[in-house]
Amino acid sequence: MSLLSQPKARNGTLPSMTGAASSKVIEKRTVDMQIIGEWVEPGSRVLDLGCGRGALLDYLVQNKQVSAVGVDLNFHRITACVARGLSAYQGDMMSFMRQFADRHFDRVICSRTVQELDDPSAVILEALRTGKSVTVGFVNHGFWKNRFGGLFGGRKVRNEVYTTEWHESRPTNPLTIADFQDFCAAKNIRIIRRVHLSGNWRTPLRLLPNLFAGYALYDLARGE
Amino acid sequence: MDDATEVIAYNHHSPGEIGIVMPHDFIYSRTFTFKSGQTLPGFRLRYETYGVLNTTRDNAILICHALSGDHHCAGLHSTDDRKPGWWNNLIGPGKAVDTNRFFVVCANVLGGCQGSTGPSSTHPATNRPFGLGFPFVTILDMVRAQKLLLNHLGVDELHAVIGGSMGGMQALLFSIEYPAYTRRVLAMATTAREGAQAIAFNEVGRQAIMQDPDWNRGDYEKGGGPRVGLAIARMMAHITYVSDASMDRKFGRRRKSSGAGDSYNFDVQFEVEGYLRHQGQTFINRFDANTYLYITRALDHFDLPHAYGSLEAAFAPVQAETLVVGFTSDWLFPPEQNRAIALALLRAGKRASYAELSTDLGHDSFLLESEELYTLIRGFLETKAARVFDFSI
User: If we measure between CA atoms, which residue out of B124, B181, B126, B191 comes closest to residue B151?
Assistant: First the structure.
């Protein structure tokens, strides 16, 4: 399924994804696991903001023996985390983080959550207070296919990750790699390392990431 | 029982009923010293068990009841019973607390009046009820007594301890006092510290009892006592267990009499009045007034941050995995007080989760028949415990 040729919506929904397409989605959903897994110190204390059903934390507990806690707003997602044996907290991430001392967590992860936050700047700065480092992963809306899809399709971006139509989508605040780097510079946030992945979300990419990267991961720390 | 029923009874997905259950008595015949320093030469706990203790003696789940609850939390005492035990919707074969897998224990608390030793029990020396001569009971005393029962039953460690409200307090204390013994804690609609509003309601209930002339400074015959005061205490307390929305849904402004207009007297006019009076009347037939004083006092004294220096310090020894569940409409122990428990555990570096259910049933929501709640509880109880084995020297 090409991102450029947006499938024509029938009855307002995408054609159901089967076989190769759905496995591609699962692959995309797990792409940051491996990279974040490499960044996470074994046995460290990790907080996942917007932990969903706990797939990433489960992976980190299994592979890195981290002491993990996730935060999410949804009861059913918390239920899924609890069934996995994870610690999970149902509630607002800002009020949650305010309950913890400076540098309580070794790492705070914000994986594909930033675009849905009311106040991304406040959340990332609070995460940098209570976490020694902060990992942010996001879909690059500067990626050329996302630009072209909007430009020529004349429609909200829809692809394997953003499957829903405008009227059934949560509010999103799309960002690009350039936006994010400007933000870090403006807030004096140190970028410890970064990974830009091409459109397949697998191959690392160096040239013109804002145009050619589909996905970006940043490891941040407070500026000196 | 033919083969078919056998299969159904053990099918995880088709919940069955426990059926007829029997209460038992545990007699502890050594001196028991209360937190207050007062002593009893021994005590009795009335309890029930469902399911079978496994050979490794580690599949036990302790259920802790709330203020007016008892040991009869599931099944029926006889086929004539109109109602099963108070948590029958949760506990049974194939249910969220699955008696095919777990050995479930529930005891009437020490200081209670449903068969365990308490203020309404007969003092061996005087042959009259203890009354105010009974030692002051705390939540800690209730927990210690239940631990003695579990030892007696041969339970080597608890798979989980579960409770709502006062039962949640006991569950939390279990993991603090017996950290190596307690693997999971499920605390619902509870608090780590009885707040001023909850103490205030308890005090109004106690005053209703103590201002009734029949209370007679706690000196009354078994079955007698301040029936009016106890009924009023229960009526008021009952309001704190429900909510504005749930009462309005259940009763609205509906009238008892057929006439729709106002009648100018103080007889029961509204259905909600009749309902509360009924609650009060049923309560006096099953509960003892002095016991109500003692147990509400035990609730008032419950303050983990004060008892251990801070809530984090209280939770420092905990080894259990804890799940705290709050309910949006609970205004007796509101979500915030439940969140505080999970947050303090996490700050102390423990494994803890917090989940919140949207209900409009108030404090009693923890007794709710809710598939969502059952799924959460089942998931929590049936995960392989992520036990941390420390091989370092």
Answer: B181
Identify the closest residue of chain A to B345 by CA–CA distance. A87
Annotated catalytic residue B310: no
d(CA B171, CA B147): 11
pLDDT in tens, B263-295: 788 888 999 999 999 999 999 999 999 999 999
- ipTM of this complex: 0.91
- The answer to whether B192 and B305 have CB atoms below 8 angstroms apart is yes
Question: Which chain A residues touch B352 with a CB distance below 8 Å?
Answer: 87
How close A134 comes to chain B (CA, Å)? 19
pTM of the model: 0.91
- Decide if A103 touches B, using CB distance below 8 A: no
Q: In sequence order, what E strands does chain B have?
A: 24-28, 32-33, 39-40, 43-50, 60-64, 91-92, 97-98, 103-107, 158-164, 184-188, 321-327, 352-357
Touching check for A89 and chain B: CB below 8 Å?
yes
b (16+ CB within 10 A) / e for B224-263? ebbbbbbbbbbbebbbbbbbeebbeeeeeeebeeeeeeee
Catalytic pick from B330, B364, B365, B370? Answer: B330
Instruction: Kindly state whether A99 is in contact with chain B, defined as any CB-CB distance less than 8 angstroms.
Output: yes
The alpha carbon of residue B389 and the mean position of all alpha carbons in its chain are separated, in whole angstroms, by 33
Residue A85 contacts B where some CB pair is shorter than 8 Å: yes
Beta bridge partners of A191: A220
